[in-house]
Design a protein that fits this description.
α1 packs antiparallel against α2 and α2 runs parallel beside α4. The model has no long low-confidence stretch (mean pLDDT 96). This protein has 3 domains: 37 residues, no CATH class; 276 residues, Alpha-Beta Barrel (TIM Barrel), CATH 3.20.20.140; 94 residues, no CATH class. The chain has 19 helices and 7 strands. It is of the alpha/beta class. Helices cover 50% and strands 11% of the residues. The radius of gyration is 22 Å and the shape is globular. The protein starts with a helix and ends with a helix. The longest helix is centred in the middle third of the chain and has 29 residues. The protein has a 7-stranded mixed beta sheet.
């Protein structure tokens, strides 16, 4: 049975969706038959997982991430892909099949004119910020906003192709073909920098007579050091990426105001899809993030209703002095988010091999903020389940008519997240809700006996 389980788990990452769906169904039948043992559910969350629709370090599909959460006993799980909503419906379907609280969104980079002279959370790139939209329930958004989303995807591809031209010139005699070697690594044509990195490293090993000498020349690192570095392939890839693709590398071009969409346009697209515009936080060390009060005020005016944190970056640090400072920055940011009624989305990203599947919220550094993280997961799931099955999401007309403040809205959707189980019976109750109900009446329907 163990072999069959492994076969099915591998099939979850097949590029053909029917194969993924069939594998998930069979895995859950094995659970029902007690032929697979899964972990007891724990109140832990990873609400920021990239899938293979952008890049996942383990090659996981949306269905695979839902299954892994179920198998590991993770109560909340969410996907966030770069520049696309391709995995949204598959993931939310899969979460309902396995019975975990799920959410889906996207991540991109935006230009914020008011911070054009300040570095925010994209290193060395003033005015450029990683930004997110959470709580989508479909990839089907109105035509005007779909044009914005399509443009985001198109811009990303243009940046990739331009970078590959520069890399091919530098890596000669090695030449990588975008269509033949990079796009086949993706299920839906949304290639990223990490796909290009994978293709380049693979091609060097397969087509260059002496790969170590090649890399020694291109990276300006001794051949013996290259041999040692390649013993840790993920670590070696990170070095190649840093040397060739990141700031200062031959493939890098410093972005300007026109390189990424303005934040207002991205918010327009997120809101049109009923999603939740979300500020992202790095670690509080940049000029932009040291002005986070100003940033929050600006983004709230533009429609932001949540914030995102990657906790590991803020505490899992070897240097004691740096760790203490970043942990304090984290606490200050969480307090500011609470003060501004911005629920918190957290996760590990998983867009590189070696990243955790879930954070350890019981480490001493995270215990003071653990409840805020879990409440944020309940909130995002609460919005998602009501939007998906009753059009009662955070941005809905029903919500606008029934709440006088963000604080009251947040409390309601958090409580819904706690009360509505990811079960067929609960979903049927959600589907039967009528627009004439008050928030109190909705909560009463899902009261726990």
């Amino acid at each position: 049975m163990l072999n069959r389980q492994k076969q099915l788990e591998a099939q979850l990452n097949d590029f053909k969706k029917p194969n993924r769906t069939a594998a998930l169904g069979e895995l859950m039948q094995l659970v029902v038959n007690n032929e697979i043992t899964i972990s007891k559910e724990k109140e832990i969350a990873n609400m920021h997982c990239h899938t293979f629709f952008s890049f996942n370090g383990y090659g996981y599909s949306p269905s695979a991430i839902a299954w892994m959460a179920k198998k590991m006993g993770i109560k909340f799980v969410g996907i966030v892909d770069f520049d696309v909503l391709d995995g949204v419906e598959e993931f939310l379907d899969a979460c309902e099949v396995v019975g975990v609280r799920g959410s889906a969104g996207l991540e991109t980079r935006v230009f914020i004119p008011q911070f054009s002279k300040r570095e925010i959370n994209s290193p060395g790139e003033p005015g450029i910020s990683y930004h997110m939209g959470l709580g989508f329930t479909s990839d089907n958004i109105c035509s005007d906003s779909k044009e914005i989303l399509d443009n985001m995807r198109h811009r990303a591809e243009e940046r990739n192709r331009g970078m590959l031209i520069r890399l091919n010139e530098y890596l000669a005699p090695l030449v990588i073909d975008y269509e033949k070697e990079i796009l086949p690594l993706t299920p839906a044509g949304n290639a990223t920098e990490r796909h290009m990195l994978t293709a380049i490293v693979k091609a060097v090993d397969e087509r260059i007579d002496n790969p170590e000498l090649f890399w020694s020349d291109k990276l300006n690192i001794s051949e013996n050091e290259i041999i040692e570095l390649k013993k840790d392939l993920p670590g070696f890839k990170n070095i190649v990426r840093k040397k060739l693709m990141k700031r200062g590398g031959i493939g890098y071009v410093q972005p300007g105001p026109g390189s990424f969409p303005i934040v207002d346009k991205v918010h327009q697209m997120i809101l049109a899809g009923g999603g939740l515009p979300c500020i992202t936080w790095l670690d509080g060390t940049t000029a932009g993030e040291q002005a986070m009060g100003e940033m929050m005020e600006l983004m709230i005016e533009k429609g932001a209703v949540a914030v995102n944190i990657v906790p590991d970056r803020n505490w899992n640090i070897a240097d004691d002095e740096i760790r203490l400072q970043k942990v304090q920055n984290l606490y200050d940011f969480v307090a500011m988010a609470k003060e501004n009624n911005l629920p918190i989305n957290v996760g590990t990203e998983m867009n590189a091999y070696g990243l955790k599947f879930v954070d350890d919220f019981n480490v001493s550094e995270l215990i003071p903020v653990r409840d805020a993280f879990i409440d944020g997961a309940y909130f995002i799931y609460g919005h998602s389940i009501l939007k998906r099955h009753a059009s009662f999401g955070y941005q809905s007309e029903w919500s606008q008519n029934n709440f006088k403040s963000r604080k009251l809205k947040n409390e309601f959707y958090t409580e819904i997240g706690k009360r509505v189980e990811p079960s067929t019976a609960s979903i049927k109750k959600v589907q039967q809700l009528s627009s004439g109900l008050s928030p109190e009446e909705v909560l009463q329907i899902f009261i726990k006996v």
